[in-house]
């Protein structure tokens, strides 16, 4: 940040000036010169990320003038760069107490609140900043981002679009709008904004844009299209987690389980204790009928922490092996916390059918429908059980 320039220096009254001696004036001039030099050095060190040296200079200024806005903002910036956001807010607030409306202190304070995930506080401060500079695009995009974080779709979209009116190709607004619509499951609209980003930066496409577009296709179940974007991302970052995950999940959606497994295993090479990925690898192995290996991965996941899908996977292995009572025990246990999961009801019903207990199969399927939810597979299976097929 550039050295703040404010008009908030206190002016002496004419009465005070009248009693000021030449010696007083000389001392004051010398002090102002020292403060000015310390301030210039401090901000030079700050720009060069020599934070200890910058802090030392700003603290020296406070010895001469405890409420100096240059020093207080500078110390706030030092602490913000160090990641000490709580301490940084203290300096910015001290500055604003004596120099209300200081734009640099407002900007820094809002950024700290954002970093501390106190998004509403950040919004309040940025809106104060905009009272002094309503067309500041950097601040407008930050406000829009903060509104997105607090799930205020309307306000966030309104401000992003305001930025695009001023700068139609503004990257932050386009990316922000993409994330905003993605968060609200409007994947096709999100695609529109991220694809525009690709057109603008064809020679230097951000990997995050590639994976975001890939994720939209993953959500839209256009898996083949998604694969192309994740593959492109892996060309620049071969071990990028999001690209590897996207590849694996797209192959999973295409029922290409061996390729899916290959990518889950690549993730596990770097993160061997990732519970979610261990479970996904187990699913791929189970779908490949490699049941003993799948069981090993599910158990590894459960050794880290309880996981619904790992328990479900083990239950499905027991079911596949004909161990229907063991499968039922696991599946009914999951219903306690997963009472709206239709998959559990169909799996339980199929176990009962295999055990020759069609009454219990019918009862569990009817139990799901009594919740008021609808599911074609459950309705179809219930009719089949009732019909005695």
């Amino acid at each position: 940040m550039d050295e703040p320039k404010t008009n908030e220096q206190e002016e002496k009254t004419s009465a005070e000036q009248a009693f000021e001696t030449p010696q007083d004036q000389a001392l004051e001039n010398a002090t102002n010169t020292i403060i000015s030099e310390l301030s210039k050095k401090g901000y030079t060190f700050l720009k060069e990320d020599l934070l200890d040296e910058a802090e030392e200079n700003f603290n020296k200024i406070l010895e001469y003038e405890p409420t100096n806005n240059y020093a207080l903002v500078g110390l706030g910036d030092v602490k913000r760069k160090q990641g000490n956001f709580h301490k940084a807010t203290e300096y910015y607030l001290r500055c604003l107490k004596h120099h209300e409306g200081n734009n640099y202190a407002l900007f820094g304070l809002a950024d700290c609140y954002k970093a501390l995930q106190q998004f509403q506080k950040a919004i309040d401060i940025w809106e104060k900043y905009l009272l002094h500079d309503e067309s500041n695009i950097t601040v407008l995009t930050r406000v829009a981002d903060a509104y997105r974080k607090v799930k205020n779709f309307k306000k966030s979209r309104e401000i992003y679009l305001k930025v695009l009116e001023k700068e139609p190709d503004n990257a932050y607004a386009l990316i922000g709008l993409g994330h905003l619509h993605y968060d609200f499951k409007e994947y096709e609209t999100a695609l529109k904004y991220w694809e525009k980003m690709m057109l603008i930066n064809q020679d230097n496409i951000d990997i995050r844009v590639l994976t975001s577009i890939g994720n939209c296709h993953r959500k839209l179940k256009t898996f083949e299209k998604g694969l192309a974007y994740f593959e492109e991302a892996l060309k620049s970052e071969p071990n990028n987690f999001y690209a590897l995950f996207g590849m694996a999940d797209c192959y999973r959606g295409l029922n290409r389980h061996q390729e899916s497994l290959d990518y889950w295993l690549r993730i596990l090479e770097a993160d061997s204790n990732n519970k979610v990925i261990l479970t996904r690898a187990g699913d791929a192995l189970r779908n490949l009928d490699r049941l003993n290996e799948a069981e090993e991965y599910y158990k590894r996941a459960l050794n880290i922490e309880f996981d619904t899908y790992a328990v479900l996977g083990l239950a499905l292995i027991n079911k596949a092996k004909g161990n229907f009572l063991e499968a039922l025990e696991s599946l009914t246990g999951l219903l306690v916390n997963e009472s709206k999961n239709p998959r559990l009801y169909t799996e339980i019903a199929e176990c009962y059918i295999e055990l020759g207990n069609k009454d219990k199969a019918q009862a569990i399927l009817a139990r799901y429908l009594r919740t008021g939810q609808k599911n074609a597979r459950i309705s179809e299976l219930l009719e089949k059980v009732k019909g005695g097929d």
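Confidence is low (pLDDT under 50) at residues 5-16. DSSP finds 22 helices and no strands in the chain.
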